[in-house]
Task: structure prediction
Amino acid sequence: MLSQTFLKLGVSFGLIGMAMGVYMAASHDHTLAPVHAHINLIGWVGMFLAGLFYAQRPHAAAGRMAQAQLISAVLGLLILTPGLAGVLLGFSFGEPMAAIGSILTIVAMLIFAIVVFRTKASMI
Ligand code: HEM
Ligand code: HEM
Result:
């Protein structure tokens, strides 16, 4: 089920993001703090929230828009965060990757916004 996929992705990114936070705290190297921040915020918080929404709205979860959102969100985060790390570490691949990842991430959000606006509470 799509809601389960979002929830599982959310907790998985949460574990990765927090492990990175623990490593940063232990090593006193906070260079990649924005990467940690976005794995946690877009990955853990954003995806878990989408999962909770779709768990409450199975009708919306069954649609193609929800699938498109899932694909765009996952690809977006997997491209955005290494891209952001590249920018922070001074690699030239960073900026184009971060740009592509950002576009996919915001497209996922746009799709989600359309789904949320279109979904009526009675459509459960
Ligand atoms: C085990 C859990 C976590 C640990 C050990 C941890 C650790 C850290 C560390 C060491 C920094 C760098 C701080 C600095 O450079 O000033 C940081 C930054 C940050 N963390 Fe976490 N973190 C954890 C969980 C989370 C979670 C769950 C979120 C969000 C949902 C989060 C959001 C952020 C944000 C937004 C920043 C950047 C703050 C800024 O603007 O400097 N962290 N974290
Ligand atoms: C398309 C999606 C997004 C892009 C491209 C993006 C990009 C950025 C960039 C370029 C920065 C500055 C990083 C730096 O100072 O080096 C930033 C900071 C930050 N963003 Fe995002 N962001 C996105 C989504 C979000 C979302 C959805 C949240 C929260 C739910 C968020 C929370 C933050 C926070 C807390 C900071 C400060 C973190 C820090 O300074 O370490 N961002 N973001």
Notes: The chain has one domain: 2-123. The two ends are 15 Å apart (CA to CA). DSSP finds five helices and no strands in the chain. The chain has a mean pLDDT of 96.
